Amino acid sequence: MPAPRSIFPLALLGLLGGCSLFQSDDTPRAPGGERLQGDLRWSGDQLLFRPCREQRFFDVTDANNTAILRDAHELAADSGAASLFADLRGKLKSGGRDGAQGVFAVTDVYRVQYSGPGCSDPNFKRTAMNAGGHGPDWSVQVSNQGMLVSTAGQQRRALPFVQEELPGGMRALSTEANGEKVELWINPRRCVDGRTGTVQSLQAELRINGQTWQGCAFYGGAGNPT
């Protein structure tokens, strides 16, 4: 395993209290336009995006080989859902077909799904990263105040951790608090949830006391996708 470039100790200050999480205000965000969440739906062969709490619709184009058009088509067809929730980065431009108020040229896809809270998620802005998987079900919610770990058959627990940033954009979050050795490994590669079909931008692996589970992850509003 390559040597980590940096290690950041993070104290557990009460995971669900406060709003300053994982990334300080002076941390630069990823380039490439604006990150937006909203509604995706097909109108004929045209994919339209409506940002949360807005009425404007934008004609979606793929500006960076993200496969957003293919993923939206497959997920809508498989789920039968009239609309999808999407968390995307891109550039808003003038133009657009058939009454659209402009073009959303997508450069990065963080998440596309048909189920879940979507625009109404109260924790999105306060969370740095969400990871989860199945067989058995597990989830980890990360902030700069700690990580909240849930696994089948065990009580949910909040733990402090250290984070290692590794070459290639990989990250390793680990702790040995409360007699448990917990590691969350994050790989910046496209991941599709085999149960729900949700497309996410990160692959995840959770290791607890020698047991390993696979899953997917995405950066929350307080995260730093790079």
Task: Describe the structure using short key phrases.
5-stranded mixed beta barrel; single chain; mainly beta; 1 helix; OB fold (Dihydrolipoamide Acetyltransferase, E2P); disordered N terminus
Which percent band covers the strand fraction? over 45%
Largest sheet: 10 strands, antiparallel
Radius of gyration of CA atoms, rounded to a whole number: 18 Å
Shape assignment = elongated
**Average pLDDT, to the nearest integer?**
85
Summed up, the domain count is 2
What spatial order of strands do you see in the largest sheet?
1-11-12-13-16-17-7-8-9-10
The N- to C-terminal Cα distance equals 21 Å
Order of helices and strands: EEEEHEEEEEEEEEEEEE
* Fraction in helix: under 10%
Number of strands: 17
User: Which parts are unreliable, with pLDDT below 50 for 5 consecutive residues or more?
Assistant: 1-31
Number of helices: 1
Protein name: Lipoprotein
Structural commentary:
This is Lipoprotein. This protein is 5% helix and 46% strand. The protein has 226 residues and is mainly beta. It has 2 domains: 6-22 and 127-219, no CATH class; 34-116, OB fold (Dihydrolipoamide Acetyltransferase, E2P), CATH 2.40.50. Strand 14 (191-192) and strand 15 form a beta hairpin. It is elongated and about 60 Å long.
